[in-house]
Write a structure and sequence with these properties.
Number of strands of chain A: 23
Oligomer: homodimer
InterPro entries (chains A, B): aa-tRNA-synt_IIb, aa-tRNA-synth_II, aa-tRNA-synth_II/BPL/LPL, Anticodon-bd, Anticodon-bd_dom_sf, Pro-tRNA-ligase_IIa, Pro-tRNA-ligase_IIa_arc-type, Pro-tRNA_ligase_II_C
Keywords (chains A, B): Aminoacyl-tRNA synthetase, ATP-binding, Cytoplasm, Ligase, Nucleotide-binding, Protein biosynthesis
GO biological process, one term (chains A, B): prolyl-tRNA aminoacylation
Strand content of chain A: 25-35%
Distance between the termini of chain A: 34 Å
Subcellular location (chains A, B): Cytoplasm
Structural class of chain A: alpha+beta
Radius of gyration of chain A: 25 Å
EC number (chains A, B): 6.1.1.15
Chain lengths: 472, 472
């Protein structure tokens, strides 16, 4: 066995995270503070995530569009809470074409303001509703403590924006997209998430309600993986989005927005990765199967290519690694680091014996399989690996979620990581207390019914059961 | 017949162009000067262009990546000609996170500087070459005379960047990508182009050689549709891209870059559009066939859906327009404006007679076709329409390309539009004279062999035959 190429997770999880990103060649830091270069392997994962999510988003009836990155400051100032929330994170263009601009332009931190401005132009009648648009683009939020994929000054994402005739329609849309996100994360990323509403302290600036999908990383910290916001009439009032209803009455539309970003790649790494590198769910693995050609030999090469052709014929993303000038050890470590779900090893010995070696990345198990059946066996493993990763993620989250009723006990245990289920009063002040005393936050409300016990933080009567944890 | 909904091309071509973009709901101006909102129909065309081009680019071996939008000014200043060329067009971020930045950051006008900086890190050995990366992103070039799709301050594009062991490899790559672009434009956009080298006055800032695909719009003006640059050793020297060759010698790599943008959509409009709107080539039409359901009737609806299903089964992008509350006239004009290649009209009368009406967008011909065979007939027309549009584009360009040998005669005729073939000395000063006296530019060099006649502009001995015209 090759010796460890990564800092072990148990030794230093943040160092392990950096190591994986570097060694799997996923990304590296850009020249400007907090910026990121996404390298071919990382970007190929993102492209598969995009294609998958794009199909799901379009299936809800949303259409893709593009909006400008440069937003006049006056637009941002129209919705009071929104500008308060985003002002500290803005990057501002003050000069263009060699001259100082009359009005500075912000780089979009998110596009509600510019899109709701156009909604006001495009929405005139109830027949124009619902209107559902989605954007794949880059946004900028100034980041003082950047971390690749998790917090970068510029990141790639999709942001959806919709307008509806009624508040109830907006509620339904917000929930629908939360469901789309949850299913994508579970079915494609194999990440078990808890979906629920955010507490007021964690709400999107300008939203009536924010919903989230929360996942648990292997170091015990939570990660917000995607959010869906019911903006109610806030932006419709600020931007004047009005329509004539069937009775000829002028009414304000209700709007929503929802987004997921390259941050999910950070989650993917920290949920599935182990001390040998990344473990990619087959659904979003750029190569689902790598055929490692061990020897520079025509018969071996032919055998590898036949396996690749058979896999591709079965719709599997297969790749032959024929870099026989590089050592077997280096190459197998490389594909382990990159998280390729299945590896098939074929050399002169395998051709002679008629059996190839099949290696699963998820449990690192190896088996000898007849050459004639190895492509079929590999293809058959993919659904099993996808399911196994989701199951591990679910089991890990469940095993690291515990109910708590005593604050002091909670404060002692929270440092060990994991998620905590607790009763909460709903008082906004209590969120500040929680954060200051434990470094933890309410990740989401998991039950709208008042729980039996009193509030973990204040001891007041409780209104909700909430999930609490330290988070990225 | 509905009366004209667009300014006729012959009356005012720029007004016609604006009208088509507005009425076909392709795009509109953004809030900041020169910015653009791309609406669902325009963006769907762009997505099909992207997917098509992406396949072609990946087939050459290039891999997609993402690089940051924010580039330190010091990076741009490393290649002297590059910074001179782009400085007047830069947008500059001076503030981030509420503070003034120590070093201002430019919004990328193009990514050579940041990519070649990373090439210097990633390229160490001849084994690392060639390295071919492609980016789909947004860039900003400050635009004083913006025009939707043609000149916008922010635009969407792909930019490819490659590094090679030898200058000859870079030459070959530059030519290869020019060919990829030409074939995409002809095969998918159905736009006949002239591919050739740019004169020094039109070269990319920092390139040794720039190659271009030039198309002729229906108003007689040329449009540069895509460019491929051989950057030689210029950026490799500026950024220190060096590798060890097989003999252990340290050498500079040679680099290239190549790009195409949403500007091509402007070309698509102006090459194929007519007084009734857009005419989309089937290869990039979001709906290739629209089935117009004329009556609110179960049997008619059933018939329309069966036709749609049959078309989709044959791999055709089909769409049923069932908005029977909107008039037939309004809906047929709408799909004409949007340029849908084939329309099938099915109402109660058609169901009773067993014959639907089939309408081609390219020549606006109509025919009555048995209902049972109409899907097959529509599908069969698509390749024919694709070819017909390319042929018309080629014929128009050829008919409006004329040889000239006398400058005064040329100066008189150039106002009428079209392209001119002329002998040219190669003297840089002559390009300035040409521009100042006629408003025209050398679009590209079409023949490397010295022509028989003397230079059109200077009367000196000629070195090249060039294509000249006024351009967007």
């Amino acid at each position: 066995m090759a010796k460890a190429v990564l800092t072990p997770q148990a030794e230093d999880f943040p160092a392990w995270y950096q190591d994986v990103i570097a060694r799997a060649e996923l990304a590296e830091s850009g020249p400007a503070r907090g910026s990121m270069v996404i390298r071919p392997w990382g970007y190929a994962v993102w492209e598969l995530m995009q294609a998958d999510m794009d199909r799901r988003i379009k299936a809800t009836g949303a259409q893709n569009v593009a909006f400008p990155m440069l937003i006049p400051m006056s637009f941002l100032e129209k919705e009071k809470q929104h500008v308060e929330g985003f002002s500290p994170e803005l990057a501002v263009v003050t000069h263009g074409g060699g001259e100082e601009l009359a009005e500075p332009l912000a780089l979009r931190p998110t596009s509600e303001t510019v899109i709701n401005h156009y909604f006001a132009k495009w929405v005139q009648s109830h027949r124009d509703l619902p209107l559902a648009l989605n954007l794949w683009n880059n946004v900028v939020r100034w980041e003082l403590r950047p971390r690749l994929f998790l917090r970068t000054t510029e990141f790639l994402w999709q942001e959806g924006h919709t307008a509806h005739a009624t508040y109830e329609d907006a509620v339904e849309e917000t929930r629908r997209m939360l469901g789309v996100y949850r299913r994508f994360m579970e079915e494609s990323l194999a990440i078990s998430v808890v979906a629920g509403e955010k507490s007021p302290g964690e709400r999107f600036a300008g939203a009536d309600h924010t919903f989230t999908c929360e996942a648990l990383m292997r170091d015990g910290k939570a990660l917000q993986m995607g959010t869906s916001h019911n903006l109610g009439h806030n932006f419709a009032r600020a931007f004047g989005i009005q329509y004539l209803d069937p009775a000829g009455e002028r009414r304000h539309a209700a709007t929503t927005s929802w987004g997921t970003s390259t941050r999910m790649i950070g989650g993917l790494i920290m949920v599935h990765g182990d001390d040998h590198g990344l473990r990619l769910p087959p659904a979003i693995a750029p190569h689902q199967v790598v055929v490692l050609q061990l020897d520079e030999d025509a018969e071996v090469a032919g055998s590898a290519r036949r396996i690749e052709a058979e896999l591709r014929g079965a719709g599997v993303r297969a790749h032959v690694d024929d870099r026989t000038h590089t050592s077997f050890g280096r190459r197998s470590v490389d594909w382990e680091l990159k998280g390729v779900p299945v590896r098939i090893e074929v050399g002169a010995r395998e051709v002679a014996s008629g059996r190839a070696t099949l290696v699963r990345r998820d449990d690192r198990s190896k088996s000898a399989v007849p050459l004639a059946g190895v492509a079929g066996a590999a293809a058959g493993l993919l659904a099993e690996i996808q399911q196994a990763l989701l199951e591990q993620s679910r089991r890990f989250r469940e095993e690291h979620t515990q109910p708590v009723t005593d604050f002091d006990e909670f404060a002692q245990r929270v440092g060990g990581g994991g998620l905590f289920l607790a009763a909460w009063s709903g008082a906004e002040e209590s969120e500040r207390v929680l954060g200051e005393r434990t470094g933890a936050t309410i990740r989401c409300i998991v039950d709208a019914e008042p729980p039996a016990s009193t509030c973990l933080i204040t001891g007041e009567p409780a209104r909700h059961t909430v999930l609490i944890g330290r988070a990225y």
